[in-house]
Structures are given as C-alpha cells and as structure tokens.
Description:
The protein is mainly α. Helix content is 66%, strand content 2%. The chain has helices spanning 7-29, 38-55, 60-65, 67-91, 110-121, 134-178, 185-192, 201-221, 237-253, 257-264, 267-286, 296-316, 325-333, 337-343, 351-354, and strands at residues 99-101, 129-131. The longest helix is centred in the middle third of the chain and has 45 residues, at 134-178. The chain starts with 6 loop residues before the first helix and ends in a 15-residue tail after the last helix.
Amino acid sequence: MQATISLEQVGGAALMLLFLADIFLTILYARVGTGLFAPYWDRAIWALFRVAARALRRWHGAILSFAGPIIIVSLIGFWAVGLAVGAALVIQPELGTAIRPSTGEASTDFGTALLIAGNSLSIVGGGDYSPHTTATRLLFLANSLIGASVLSLVLSYLVQVYSALRERNALALTIDLMSDGTGDAAVMLARLLPDGDSSGATSELGNLARALVATKEAHHFYPLLFYFRFREPRYAVSRFTVVLLDLTTLIGSALDRQRYRTLVDSAPVATLHGGALLLVQTLHRHFAVAARTHSPAAEASRDGKSDDAAMATLAHAGIAVRPDGLGRYVAMRREWEPFATRVLPGAGYAVDEIDRRSDSRQHHPGTGI
C-alpha cells in the first residue's frame, strides 16, 4: 500500500468493521435487538411488506407470507454489499500502483474497485487485477478469510433459523389439533380432561412446556423468526400464545381446586404460563404495539359472551368448576389480555384470527360437547 493511509481507506476499514460487528452480534451473540444494522433493516423490510399488504388487501396473507424469506435474502445481500463497499474504499487508492492488471492500463474508478473487492471477498481472486506489494497481498488474504468466515456463518445461521421454524410450526400445529382446530383454550382443556379425568393432562402439558421453552429461546436467539408469517393462522405465534395463556388461566381460575389440585399446582402449567408471557414480551421488543381497533364496550360484550361460553364448555365436558370460576377467570385474564391483544397483532394477524374464543360452541368430536 501507499506509505500514507488515506481518509477514504480509514472509512472503508471502519465500514467493514461495523458490518462484521453486525454479523457477529446477529449470528454469534444472538440476542434480540443487539445487531447494529440488522434489526432496523429487518423492520424496514417488514414495514414495506405491511404497506403493500394493506394496499392490496385481497392478497394480504400471500404478501406477508413472503416477508420472512425475503428479509433473510435481503439481509445477506445487505451484509455482502456493505463489506464489498468497505473493501472497495480500501482498494481504490491502490489501483494502478500496488494493485494493477497483468496487462493493459489499470482503471481507477470505484466500480472497478468494487468488482475487485467482491471477487476477493468471494475467494475468487481479484480477476485480472492482482496485488504487487506485501500490504496489498495481506489485504487480499484478509478479504478471502473474511469472505469464507461470513459465508460459513450465514449458512449455519440459515440452518438454525429454518430448524427452529420447523419446531415452532410443529408446536403450533400440535396446539391447534389439541383444540380440535378451533384455537379455543376451553375446547383444548375439555379434550385434555375427558369426562373430567386429569390423569394424563400433566404429562401432555409437560410435553407442550418443553416445546414452548425451546420455541421461546429460539425467538430470543433468532428474532428474525417473528417475520415468518404463514397464511394459515394456526401457525401464528400470536395464536398459540393466546391459546396457552387462556388455557393456563382457565386451569388456575376455573377448575375445582379440591379435585384438580395436582394439575393446578403443577410445574408444566406454571411453565406454560410464564413461557407464553415471556414470548409476548420478546415479541413486544420486536414489533410496534398495535392501536386499539375496537371500542371498549364492544370488546367487553364479546369477551363476556366468550367467558360464559368457556365455562359452559367445561361444564358440558363433565369438568368440575369452581362456583366463582367465571369471576376468577375474568379477573385473571385481564392481567395479561390487554397487553397481549395489543402486541400480538403486530405480526400481521387480525385480533379475530388470534383470539378464536367463540360465542357459542358446536359439537366437537372427541370432546363430548
């Protein structure tokens, strides 16, 4: 390199370090919101998809279903461009002197520098251009090592993200099937306690608790997962989180304590409730809180009917409930419901798609209702 380092080269090196720090924080440090650029990039792309989905309401679900994959592709491209631009700023002052072609006259424009930088980062080499000093040879070597390392990290990141996404979908589908496809916690509880028998409920809830904890931690490590929205609401983090919060609220408030003490006080129930709340909090850190879209009076009327219907579902299934179960259920639900119903729609689902408690229950096979 030249004896003196230009301001352009200092800026290029700093830019490369910033992007490497962003990659490190996003992939290796892996905590919600710790990246320098990635969290803002992800939110910006998501916001564009939300705008497009609102403008083309007919294809709302289809548009948002592409958001997650596009965000991943665009984020990788963003990192690649940032590193290439930084390397090009370092390389350009050396064009025609320390870095030059084997034949012909050297081009010294930024486009040429960007091409050489991209080639060296991708381990292809500098094309027709090659380094002719020790310093520039070391620069090309460093670019090759950076390119190989980033490529390995990104491939590993993709594997981890899609593995976690598969496990999340499996949990969501399990909860949906356990509620007979209704997304209704009361129906799910009725199937967990057939004819009021709680002998197998603790074990089933324990399996769900382990899967929920793994899902919560996956979203803490890879918050990009929140942007994967499927057309079917059954796969929504928002929906299965509400179902689990409502389920544990019903267990803790409505069930006859003398008959179901073991279940009510069990670790799986506490784990499901706490894990679901933590997942809502993680989601809150990643999405803007939605504005209220319904009047308080209309919401109170709907919730009142749903609360009554939940108690009726349990009673019809032969489950012993507390005399004051309805009042306790309403009070406990209000501890988390206002916050959850404002945060959870941020992932692109309407409140009615998330909270599927129905005003009246039809007969569901296998529940006895």
